[in-house]
């Protein structure tokens, strides 16, 4: 192979590796419980929103692709306790009685007809 082809292949690999979305990083396990706040921010980038509760804090990434390919988008959150990741995923952060609460995104279930148990 000539040098130009090798350079093109190397450039393609670098560009493709940078295409992982925030949602894909949540789904593939790159982000995991026990990571520190700086490690999470380094992996996911600067959050769109930050919330501080009494005991927990939330890094919020808004309207991000759920997976690398497709058009589905959702808000994603990283919940931290004492600067350590304890919970994360697609969903929203709400103010609970005493602190911030993470409410995960739920997939819609198909409706089932009561007379024949078939989806509508």
Structural write-up:
The protein is of the alpha+beta class and 120 residues long. It has one domain (20-104): Beta-lactamase Inhibitory Protein, Chain:B, domain 1 (2-Layer Sandwich). It is built from three helices and five strands. The chain has a five-stranded antiparallel sheet. A hairpin with a 3-residue loop joins strand 1 and strand 2. The chain starts with a helix and ends in a 16-residue tail after the last strand. Residues 8-19 have low confidence and may be disordered.
Helicity level, as a percent range?
10-25%
Q: Please count the beta strands (DSSP E, at least 2 residues each).
A: 5
Uncertain segments are: 8-19
Q: What number is the mean pLDDT?
A: 77
Which CATH class applies here? Answer: Alpha Beta
- Main beta sheet, described? 5 strands, antiparallel
Give the CA-based shape. globular
Q: Distance N terminus to C terminus?
A: 56 Å
CATH structural architecture: 2-Layer Sandwich
At the fold tier of CATH, the topology name is: Beta-lactamase Inhibitory Protein, Chain:B, domain 1
Notable characteristics:
alpha+beta; 3 helices; 120 residues; 5-stranded antiparallel beta sheet; 24% helix; Beta-lactamase Inhibitory Protein, Chain:B, domain 1
Summarize the structure.
With 120 residues, the chain is of the alpha+beta class. The protein has helices at 3-17, 22-27, 37-44, and strands spanning 49-52, 56-65, 73-81, 84-95, 100-104. A five-stranded antiparallel β-sheet has the order 1-2-3-4-5.
